[in-house]
Design a protein that fits this description.
This protein is an all-alpha fold and 203 residues long. The protein has a domain of 95 residues: Tetratricopeptide repeat domain (Serine Threonine Protein Phosphatase 5, Tetratricopeptide repeat), CATH 1.25.40.10. It has 11 helices and no strands. The longest helix has 27 residues. The protein is elongated, with a radius of gyration of 24 Å.
Length: 203
Amino acid sequence: MFQKLLVIVLFGFTVLQSNESNLKSQCDDSNATACYMYALPMISGDNAKIQDVKEKGMSFIRKACILGEERACDKMGDNYYQDENYRIAMPYLEKSCARGIKFACEAMGTIFRDGHDIRADDVKSREFYEKACALKSGDACFSVAIIYRGGFGVEKNRAQEKAFYKKGCDAELKVGCDRFKELDNEDKGIETGLWVSIKAWFK
């Protein structure tokens, strides 16, 4: 039994090595998808914590992106963003966002909101957060609600604030649900919050 298991493991390892070698060969022949697939294991999981391995993987991701593999370009933007190289990340993130990549739209919204390596721009921040919200990012929807609550780059608008809390709730963000319910209750004349609890003590 043990011998059979050992044979299966060794066979699987041999197939894996063969597949990796095949991908590397195709990548050397400028196959963008092969470069991307070859690089993925080097930038994922525990390998992502080993700097030398990750750097090697990112070199193949970069090649895949240059050769036209859009998923690799998404990885480039995410990697630069996580490393706080915001100015370098932005061209990748903007293109990814235009193709409907949620995290890229979120990241662009945050870059413009917080002024990472650029002048803060509330209008652009809202535009990117709204795109991310439309892609079901609860956090982005909540950020847009806050923008309308504070009047950052727009007129304060309670109806829009409430609508974006609702969108955040629909995207399964609990705090979005809580804020929407609070505003909705206020609109219906239903008292909520700490004051209700205090008054209940004296009933």
